[in-house]
Design goal:
By secondary structure, the protein is of the alpha/beta class. It has one domain. The chain has 14 helices and 8 strands. β1 and β2 form a beta hairpin. The N terminus is likely disordered.
Length: about 325
Amino acid sequence: MSRFKSLMVASVLALSAPASAQVALTPAPEVLADPDATLVEELVVTARLPGPAWWRVSDGDSTVYVLGAPSLAPKRQQWDRLQFERRLQGANLVILPLSTLKVTLTGAPGAAFSYLKLKSGKPFEERLAGAERARFVSARTKLGMQADHYKTGHPLAAGLILIGDYRDKENLTTTDPSKLIKLLAGQAKVKVLQRSYDVSPLLRAVTKTSQAAGAACLDEVLSEVEAGPGRTLAASRAWADGNVAGALDAERTYERCIAATPGAVAFDARVKADLAKDIETALKTPGHAIAVVPLRTLLSQGGVLDRLRAQGYEIGTPGDVE
């Protein structure tokens, strides 16, 4: 399970809030803050070689080739694997984005209790009125879902369930190309490093998410469902062609929603720090390794490459990586 889909499930299980008679989807625009909104522009470079873009982190006689991955793409996205297969030969390690988010036994009861508080006896849309209700009904009808599928009292939970349904219907995934790369690395007998995290503390924090933040999330999710997958598909094609700027031009509704929950920004920073640390550790072994990192996690200010550059490592861009 991918970082973002796993966190969605965790958030839905953990959210709780007092049920109000009616929910207004008129949040202030500053409610949602995107921790990856600001990019390091000099790293956003179109690939010189065919296929998706690669960056290079070097330290003396060791190198880690970093593939920037889309955060959302069509299932079984086609891409030119020539550069990947060339770099896989002789690699001593493949580092992948996190695969699972786990809840410890001590944290599970709290998550279950929050889930019971989250559940509602009536569909979420009955908490809406007028045009807002019609908009929600239109969106879930477009996805072929019944009103009872969204029995919750919190707009963030409704939004997270809705975005999951939308991406399932449109055959969009957050796990490619990492899932394929893991398979290919295994076939080549190259060691794979992929972290998992205990999110019990995050689950407890998520219960404090405000109605305003939830409303902002739901509003953006509805906009994404209404717009359809065109922009995501175009960004995915750009990624496959090595057009980094085009690949970054995709919806970030879900990531922004998650960032609005208490504790999520700190968790995001921890994941970035761990990826940077894993690359730094790989550089201690002579030879070369491969890392796969979501594009914005890789290229944002405070992101993986920004952290490594601050540590003094040499960073090569797709315009000069051989």
